[in-house]
Amino acid sequence: MPVKLISSRDNSLYKSLKKLAQSARERRKSGKALLDGVHLIVAHTERIGPPEMLVVAHAAQDKPEVRGLLERLPDVALIVLSDALFGELTPVDTPSGVLAQVALPELPLPQALQCVVLLEALQDPGNLGSILRSAAAAGVDAAYLSPGCADAWSPKVLRGGMGAHFALAIREDVDLVAAAQAFAGEVVVTSLQGEISLFDLDLSGTVAFVIGNEGAGVSQTLQQAATRRVRIPMPGEVESLNAAAAAAVCFFERVRQRQSTLAP
Amino acid sequence: MPVKLISSRDNSLYKSLKKLAQSARERRKSGKALLDGVHLIVAHTERIGPPEMLVVAHAAQDKPEVRGLLERLPDVALIVLSDALFGELTPVDTPSGVLAQVALPELPLPQALQCVVLLEALQDPGNLGSILRSAAAAGVDAAYLSPGCADAWSPKVLRGGMGAHFALAIREDVDLVAAAQAFAGEVVVTSLQGEISLFDLDLSGTVAFVIGNEGAGVSQTLQQAATRRVRIPMPGEVESLNAAAAAAVCFFERVRQRQSTLAP
């Protein structure tokens, strides 16, 4: 297959890739995103299908893992960028050398939602990626993001998610208060003043976990829409958890309870 | 108290602060670090004592929270930096306007260690800060860091720790294999191939948790020094957790087990 080599910043394809890399608005408008690195591209291929286009840095063409990927996806359009241009598309210090353009997948919601996570104004991309990753591993069905959350399809969040984006239904710009009110199960918010310990609440049924903004926590209106305020017991001398750590503790306490419920 | 205003990059005090802000080697050599923001400075003051020096940005002198801090610490040496100089000392996009120079606290180890975390070549400062924060909240006694870990006293790790650095004994450049071999309890490493579920292992006694590098995981030699390989059950479609999320799940499963053991 003849491969197109692009080394000019004026190239229109390069310009559209750069917009996708840098602008959440552009990703939303076009319904597309860029995946950085072999791991994410393989995860997308296995769970959703092949990407629309592969973009390789000139210097990376002969890397074994890039070569393997190209051999696996012989029918996907391929362009090669000069290393300087490629470097401008990726915020990573050590570029992987390969990107893929994909359509934003909209995974269907299961008919009966068992577990969702409601993320309110979560601003740190690292936290958001980690929460999506934990949720996918714990078998959470869906993540609903409020307006004001970091863009779920930004390069940093995709990297942190490590493939979770293709295993979990993600919905952005969701009215979380309405979602909480409509939810057919417990809506659980964690709070230092929670009336019950996370470990004493039955989480084995249908549950929505609410995770709030890193600084401000969960808004009053969303707290009021919750059915349960739980506290994570903290016997240490600091009463404080990172949002992503608190989410992981909640998700996996549910995993534990369901396993002990199902055990003989 | 007359306050010194510094606006020259050639000022020797400014130069020493800048080294402290930027260089792990300098922090180690001098045994000092910089704390950024009122929250960390108050946490240090309450748990360790007042800082050696306060550094305020010219524009921040009249912020109520900065003013309150200065009134609380009237005997601490104070310097004021021009906003441009202050901005060069802090990597944060929205500077707090106040820094403190402190001696690196070396919190004593308890006589009988109940729970420690061994961190091997953990490289992401956000992960490291989050793990220290979770550990302090869960009542872990100490964190041992291998060579190759991110510097525990860098601005990013301090920010992520949210005061954990003053509630938890931290030791850097530790030979973790030797520490694991000398440890008087279970040494638990998580692994996708672990022979027992985290939820089925008795964690209520003396436990060391091993957390490995984000990419490479735990080294073979350290795995061999562990007494238990556990898996965190992941019913979802992705078998993968961020290091800080995995650590939080382990720490709080121990909290849960100890509470149910101690309950009447």
UniProtKB/TrEMBL annotation, chains A, B:
InterPro entries: Alpha/beta_knot_MTases, MRM3-like_sub_bind, Ribosomal_eL30-like_sf, rRNA_Methyltransferase, SpoU_MeTrfase, tRNA_m1G_MTases_N. Keywords: Methyltransferase, Transferase. Transmembrane segments: none annotated. One of its GO terms (molecular function) is RNA binding. Gene3D superfamilies: 3.30.1330.30, 3.40.1280.10. Residues 14-100 form the MRM3-like substrate binding domain. Residues 115-251 form the tRNA/rRNA methyltransferase SpoU type domain. One of its GO terms (biological process) is methylation. It comes from the Bacteria. Belongs to the class IV-like SAM-binding methyltransferase superfamily. RNA methyltransferase TrmH family. This is RNA methyltransferase. It comes from Sulfurimicrobium lacus.
